[in-house]
Amino acid sequence: MYASLEHSKKFDDQDPSAWRGFVKWAYEAMPSLISKYEDAWPVELYVRINLRKRIAQQRHQFRKAVAKYKRMIALPRSPSSACEAELSPADLPPPYDEEDPAAGNNTPGACMHPDAAPENIEKFLRSCDFDLGHLTSAFVTQRAGLFNLERLELLASWPAALRRDHLERHFGTILDDVEIEILNKRFVEMSHAQI
């Protein structure tokens, strides 16, 4: 029955009828869900986590294939490699509908924004309930755009749902749900301090 859900789509993008069928199957397979849990929330949580991990794994495989292709192009041809099969652009996996914004954040050589203030960002990340200072280098890249206090304050002024969505899109592969909630909570505290 799990096969009826599309493994390449996020939970919110799943077909509602396929989801209802899956929940029905889960109730039949595990009758205690009906009596113990309202709206099958453990099933939904498990599926959300599982789909997120599958999508992250697919993106990781895609990035590896692209990196391998780029290395093959960049390397000068030697006589020993002439007999090896070449990797053509047709061998690459298809691109994702959404570009993975977090892909560049952990890669070596990710460009730091020229106006970055890493010490301020690190201070902010360390001030969270959970010390997230290790994420400083991911925040100050040009791609992430959270490189100084003004940018953090701007993000703090956004509604919580929009902020969470932004954090998930840009840092979903390096942050888990708890860390995203901790950051969101810290941004709420920051927005209250501004008022």
What is the global morphology? flat
For the biggest sheet, the summary is: none
Q: N-to-C SSE series?
A: HHHHHHHH
**Share of residues in strands:** under 5%
Helix content: 40-55%
Radius of gyration: 21 Å
Helices and strands in order, then pairings?
Layout: H1 16-29, H2 32-36, H3 41-74, H4 118-126, H5 136-139, H6 149-156, H7 160-171, H8 177-194
Helix pairs in contact: 6-8, 7-8
How would you characterize this protein structure?
With 195 residues, this protein is mainly alpha-helical. The protein is built from 8 helices and no strands. The longest helix has 34 residues, at 41-74.
Please describe the structure with a list of short key phrases separated by commas or semicolons.
single chain; 195 residues; mainly alpha
